[in-house]
Amino acid sequence: MKIAILGGDGFCGWPTTLHLSARGHDVVVVDNFSRRAIGEELGAESLTPIRSLAERRAAWEELTGRSVGFAGIDLARDYEAFLDLLVTERPDAVVHFAEQRAAPFSMKSPRHKRYTVDNNLNATHNVLAAVVESELDVHVVHLGTMGVYGYGTAGMRIPEGYLDVEVPGEGGGVAQQILYPSNPGSIYHMTKVLDQTLFAFYAKNDRLRITDLHQGIIWGTNTRETGLDERLVNRFDYDGDYGTVLNRFLMQAAVGHPLTVHGTGGQTRAFIHIQDMVRCVELALLHAPARGERVKIFNQMTETHRVRDLARLVAELTGAQVETVPNPRQESPENDLHVVHDAFLDLGLRPTTLSEGLLLEVEQTATRWAHRADLSRIPATSLWTRERRAGIPASRTGAAPVGA
Fold it and tell me: CA neighbours within 13 Å on the CB side: how many for 133?
């Protein structure tokens, strides 16, 4: 296939680009380098020293003989440029990673909230509108989030996108199938919920072929392809805005910083290794919905864990100390999360588990590059409401520990 990877320079986009190229697909990256610009704004570089996209592409071609194309387009603003790319390149599919992906960043301030909404929704809608205007049969694969479901305790296994319901009627109950009720926990998650509605409309009205991947938290850094050469290395975010909980724990352990567990640590999250993520995207591309079908939704995750249990696991592996800190987020202190995720397993996915890969990740990434860490960037300081407090360990401030 010819595939356009939107946001192909990013944490998910870059390894996906190489994975699909290695499988023989013709790949073009579309990016405006907004993630790199955000890193400059935050003063937080990737722990791993990532090269420019030009260097990355040149290294890949040198190593494999396969070229990756590039188009510098801001999808939220340059509609005509993207439409022209579709008409010129005529891709079979686009993989849409081109959204601001961090919940804490989306909650930092009114400006960051507005940026996240403007960027994410305009990018998604421009992609869909351009596909319609191009009159091409392009399969749109979108990276969504498990966070559209919210993190409350549902009392049931969350289905893959759709929920069977019975609506009371005059002649008895009427069976229907609806999108599982959304319950976003941040502005970022809200934009992914609104993406769902856009997808449902365009699939119904314009018969677009769309797959939405409701993904868990990614752990790990490199895939087989990004591990071939240091010039191809993927980014590793550890800061309080972009560092996902497990990568943050790995970084904290590597530099002797307490593992910061927000609140009680009773929040249950879904996880997937980055190697499994790229394989899931490939499987989604190979099993596209037919034209006129509703949006195909996968729950893209492989296991669930409570945050405090993750901290305990990392502490046992590394000898790190665990410390509870205030939770900057507005969320339930405890929740259960039970998720149906059979579709990818049925298609042949063989997951990488935390127990198999965690220690290797500590050694190969967090410890190796620990000298590049800026410890001041580790705490989570973006607050969901004015009443919340930053997740800074008391041992670093002299304050009383949480719950003391």
Answer: 15
Q: Which pLDDT belongs to residue 404? A: 42
Is 40 a member of any domain? yes
The catalytically annotated residue of 188, 202, 238, 242 is: 188
Q: Which domain range does residue 124 map to?
A: 2-236+272-301+339-353
CB 156 within 8 A of CB 35: no
Q: For residue 290, what is the domain's CATH number?
A: 3.40.50.720
Residue 313: inside a domain: no
Residue 54 CB burial class (10 angstroms; 0-12, 13-18, ≥19): exposed
Is 153 annotated as catalytic?
no
Dist CA 165 CA 162 (whole Å): 10
- CA–CA dist 375, 249 (Å, integer): 13
Please determine, for residue 74, whether its predicted confidence score (pLDDT) is greater than 50. Answer: yes
Catalytic residue among 16, 48, 116, 145: 145
Among candidate residues 48, 108, 115, 192, the one labeled active-site is 192
Is the pTM here over 0.70, yes or no? Answer: yes
User: How many domains, the chain?
Assistant: 1
* Residue 323 covered by a domain: no
Is position 149 annotated as part of the catalytic site?
Answer: no
In a domain, 214, yes or no: yes
The predicted structure's pLDDT at residue 370: 92
* 191-220 pLDDT, tens digit each: 999 999 999 999 999 999 999 999 999 988
Annotated catalytic, 188? yes
